[in-house]
Amino acid sequence: MRIRPVTAAELPALQDIERAAGEPFRYLGMAAIADDEPPTIEELDGYRRAGHAWVAVDDDAEDSPVAYLIAYLVADPLPGTPSLHIEQVTVHPRAARRGVGRALIEYAGERAREEGAAALTLTTFTDVPWNAPYYARIGFRPLADAELTPALRDIRAHEAELGLDRWPRLCMRRDLTGAGAGVTPRTAP
User: Fold this and answer.
1) How far apart are CA 26 and CA 9, in angstroms?
2) Sheet containing 64-74: order of strands
3) pLDDT at 107 > cutoff 50
4) Are strands 119-125 and 83-91 parallel, antiparallel or unpaired?
5) pTM for the whole structure
6) C or N: which end of the chain has fewer Cβ atoms within 10 Å?
7) Where in the chain does DSSP place strands (E)?
8) C-alpha–C-alpha distance, residues 139 and 137, integer Å
9) Residue 148 in this model has a pLDDT that exceeds 60
10) What phi and psi, each to the nearest 5 degrees, are found at residue 42?
């Protein structure tokens, strides 16, 4: 697997990955998530143009994307210290359970550090095994309501408007600076 910036020509492939990755939600009683349309080409292109859209490509499949991550910078509590908010990390089921999502997150973390970000943040479903429990295993911690920044509160409010709160959700954070930053069970000494 290689990770690199997504190209404009690959944006439709990201939509296909999103649709395929949504199917397992159907088996958890979350058909609305499985049936949800992926981000539009225009939305995906916005992340690409901002430099916050990356793909994992399978070298055996002629450099074809098998997973992607899109993100954007948000204000952190301390002025001048943004966080990179992961909007979406999606792995095609045929590439699942091979560390692809983790590799994309690590790559995004490195790019975020280069941009001066203090942390990675995301919102996720609490009870979906490949969501909150997975992120906890790779170093993210749940945030209490009192820890939510105004930007994260806005994100959660928007998600509620979209109906995502039909299932329990939470915000999570992984620090990129300070003690323990970037340490996951696989990278711990």
Assistant:
1) 29
2) 2-5, 53-58, 64-74, 83-91, 119-125, 169-175, 141-142
3) yes
4) parallel
5) 0.89
6) C
7) 2-5, 53-58, 64-74, 83-91, 119-125, 141-142, 169-175
8) 6
9) yes
10) -65, -45
